[in-house]
């Protein structure tokens, strides 16, 4: 009944394992998160590296074109105005740059030479006059943005260099490269599945794109990508591409031409790599944790079995029965407990055997004691019968002669009063007084004997009322005496009413008697609470006594004041017997000439009997 609601060892072990595994899991989760971030950053760095490498390839291609044009610009044919010869030289150079065209234009943009057309064919003005104007204005090479050719309508990119003679720009020499040429420069093998590489010109127009190139070339980049490119020269951004898919795009802007290389990879593809790695790590951690948990549970099961195997032996010992053997243990501590239980069982059985032997000896002693008690009881009953017979003898046999003595003395004093001398009257009076005193002594002895034999009939006794009645009786006996009596109200006790009345009568009578010679006599009856019990007291200002003789006060026939006061010396002995019958004690304090105080307790009570 005391184990209900308490956790089991199994559950505590499970909690212990959980408490040990939890920090490991928390650290593992942190490490997995850290690895996730690191893995994603590594993938992003790899993609960004691809973008930078591609940007270098584009720059190298454009630089080679600029170098070739710069060399061609030094042709003597231009010095002589021999454009036909220059047309031949241009076509010869294009063997190195297939699908490209070389155009020579003046400051107005009018084409003078176009390698795409045969010599002598009429030529229009160039479509990208901005590049022509920039070359004549800056006298330095210009890499233009995407435009569509005036003759072919193909998407083209021009690289323009100035032809300077005498420090003046005479012509604009340009090579127009098809967008397809840049497409061939873009890597495709290292791009993740579903990814693509694209090139944007300085206006963020698509020049080349590995994914759906026909429809992508000439399109402007989407606004989110534009904002990212405008904010920094390289980086990574998450956006939606032309196809409506969420991609991670790394970009790198060229410092040579202002173009931007974009490497876009679907986010799902990037995250699948990360998630696969995380899944492997999580699966490994979970497997190790489950193996550890299974091992811990198996160990816990064996510990629980070892502990549970001790329950039945413990219960057997509790019943006082012998434990013969305990199941073999798999844990050292429980094995030690099992050995202790076996040893305890042996000790208990030895103790039980010893106790049984002692009980037999005690039973024999009790039987012997009961026989002796019966014998002593019989002796006491016989003595009591003798005591009652003696009391009857005293009451009957001794009182009769005393009555005769008193009767004869009274008869002599009445009928022969005239014949008796005065001395005879004196002797007869003394005989009568002595017989009365002896009769009083006999009555007191019988009363003292009766106290020990009387059966107690405990009731609630109003001590204050009893004391007041006794004092009233004393006042009626001696109406001329002036005695100040103070009785505390509400004094009560449980006890035999007649015996407690006799107790108060003896103690108050004692105080009344020994204050007779005081002009103003004082008697007080009260109580106080002391050491957990009620102590009653009767105090007077009478003759008192010396404390050196206090041990003689309650002895029968002991009188400290001799014949100065009447009495036979039985009253205080009787009071002591009454108090003792009620389980209390009585004592006194006094001083010669200043009075005495008698204290007594009455602890006798009945269960659930309120006072």
Automatic annotation (TrEMBL):
<dbReference type="InterPro" id="IPR005467">
    <property type="entry name" value="His_kinase_dom"/>
</dbReference>
<protein>
    <recommendedName>
        <fullName>histidine kinase</fullName>
        <ecNumber>2.7.13.3</ecNumber>
    </recommendedName>
</protein>
<dbReference type="InterPro" id="IPR004358">
    <property type="entry name" value="Sig_transdc_His_kin-like_C"/>
</dbReference>
<feature type="domain" description="Histidine kinase">
    <location>
        <begin position="393"/>
        <end position="606"/>
    </location>
</feature>
<keyword id="KW-0597">Phosphoprotein</keyword>
<feature type="transmembrane region" description="Helical">
    <location>
        <begin position="277"/>
        <end position="297"/>
    </location>
</feature>
<keyword id="KW-0418">Kinase</keyword>
<dbReference type="GO" id="GO:0000156">
    <property type="term" value="F:phosphorelay response regulator activity"/>
</dbReference>
<dbReference type="InterPro" id="IPR003594">
    <property type="entry name" value="HATPase_dom"/>
</dbReference>
<dbReference type="Pfam" id="PF00512">
    <property type="entry name" value="HisKA"/>
</dbReference>
<dbReference type="Pfam" id="PF02518">
    <property type="entry name" value="HATPase_c"/>
</dbReference>
<dbReference type="GO" id="GO:0000155">
    <property type="term" value="F:phosphorelay sensor kinase activity"/>
</dbReference>
<dbReference type="InterPro" id="IPR036890">
    <property type="entry name" value="HATPase_C_sf"/>
</dbReference>
<keyword id="KW-0472">Membrane</keyword>
<dbReference type="InterPro" id="IPR003661">
    <property type="entry name" value="HisK_dim/P_dom"/>
</dbReference>
<keyword id="KW-0808">Transferase</keyword>
<dbReference type="GO" id="GO:0030295">
    <property type="term" value="F:protein kinase activator activity"/>
</dbReference>
<dbReference type="InterPro" id="IPR050351">
    <property type="entry name" value="BphY/WalK/GraS-like"/>
</dbReference>
<keyword id="KW-0812">Transmembrane</keyword>
<dbReference type="InterPro" id="IPR036097">
    <property type="entry name" value="HisK_dim/P_sf"/>
</dbReference>
<dbReference type="GO" id="GO:0007234">
    <property type="term" value="P:osmosensory signaling via phosphorelay pathway"/>
</dbReference>
<keyword id="KW-1133">Transmembrane helix</keyword>
<feature type="transmembrane region" description="Helical">
    <location>
        <begin position="12"/>
        <end position="32"/>
    </location>
</feature>
């Amino acid at each position: 009944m005391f184990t209900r609601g308490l956790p089991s060892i199994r559950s505590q072990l499970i909690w212990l394992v959980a408490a040990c595994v939890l920090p490991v899991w928390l650290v593992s989760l942190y490490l997995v998160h850290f690895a996730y971030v690191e893995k994603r950053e590594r993938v992003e760095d790899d993609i960004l590296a691809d973008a930078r490498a591609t940007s270098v390839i584009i720059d190298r291609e454009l630089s080679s074109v600029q170098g070739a044009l710069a060399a061609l610009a030094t042709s003597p044919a231009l010095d002589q105005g021999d454009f036909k010869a220059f047309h031949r030289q241009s076509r010869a150079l294009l063997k190195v740059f297939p699908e490209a065209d070389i155009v020579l234009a003046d400051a107005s943009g009018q084409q003078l030479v176009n390698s795409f057309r045969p010599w002598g064919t009429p030529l229009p003005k160039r479509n990208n006059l901005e590049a022509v104007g920039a070359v004549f204005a800056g006298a330095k090479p210009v890499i233009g943005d995407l435009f569509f050719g005036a003759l072919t309508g193909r998407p083209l990119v021009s690289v323009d260099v100035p032809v300077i003679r005498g420090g003046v720009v005479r012509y604009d020499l340009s090579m127009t490269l098809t967008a397809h040429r840049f497409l061939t420069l873009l890597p495709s093998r290292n791009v993740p599945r579903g990814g693509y590489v694209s090139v944007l010109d300085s206006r963020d127009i698509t020049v080349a794109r590995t994914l759906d190139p026909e429809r992508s070339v000439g399109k402007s980049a989407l606004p989110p990508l534009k904002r990212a490119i405008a904010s920094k020269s390289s980086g990574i951004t998450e956006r939606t591409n032309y196809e409506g898919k969420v991609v991670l795009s790394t970009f790198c802007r060229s410092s040579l031409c202002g173009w931007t290389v974009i490497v876009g990879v679907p986010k799902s593809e990037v995250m699948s790599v990360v998630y696969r790695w995380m899944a492997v790590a999580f699966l490994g951690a979970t497997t190790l944790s489950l193996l550890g948990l299974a091992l811990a549970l198996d160990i816990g099961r064996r510990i629980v079995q070892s502990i549970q195997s001790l329950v039945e032996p413990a219960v057997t010992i509790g019943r006082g029965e012998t434990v013969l053997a305990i199941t073999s243990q798999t844990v050292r501590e429980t094995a030690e407990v099992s050995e202790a239980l076996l040893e305890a069982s042996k000790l208990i059985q030895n103790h039980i055997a010893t106790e049984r032997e002692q009980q037999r000896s005690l039973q024999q002693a009790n039987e012997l004691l009961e026989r002796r008690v019966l014998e002593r009881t019989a002796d006491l009953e016989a003595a009591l019968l003798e005591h009652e017979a003696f009391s009857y003898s005293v009451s009957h046999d001794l009182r009769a002669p005393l009555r005769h003595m008193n009767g004869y003395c009274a008869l002599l004093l009445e009928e022969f009063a005239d014949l008796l001398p005065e001395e005879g009257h004196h002797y007869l009076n003394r005989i009568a007084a002595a017989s009365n005193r002896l009769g009083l002594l006999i009555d007191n002895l019988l009363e003292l004997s009766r106290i020990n034999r009387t059966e107690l009939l405990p009731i609630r006794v109003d001590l204050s009322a009893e004391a007041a009645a006794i004092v009233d009786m004393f006042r009626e006996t001696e109406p001329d005496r002036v005695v100040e009596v103070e009785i505390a109200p509400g004094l009560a006790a449980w006890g035999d009413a007649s015996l407690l009345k006799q107790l108060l009568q003896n103690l108050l009578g004692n105080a009344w008697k020994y204050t007779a010679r005081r002009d103003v006599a004082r008697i007080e009856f009260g109580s106080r609470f002391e050491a957990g019990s009620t102590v009653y007291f009767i105090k007077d200002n009478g003759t008192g006594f010396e404390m050196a003789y206090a041990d003689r006060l309650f002895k029968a026939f002991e009188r400290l004041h001799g014949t100065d006061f009447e009495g036979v010396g039985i009253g205080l002995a009787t009071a002591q017997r009454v108090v003792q019958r009620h389980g209390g004690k009585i004592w006194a304090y006094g001083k010669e000439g200043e009075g005495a105080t008698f204290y007594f307790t009455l602890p006798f009570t009945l269960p659930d009997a309120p006072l």
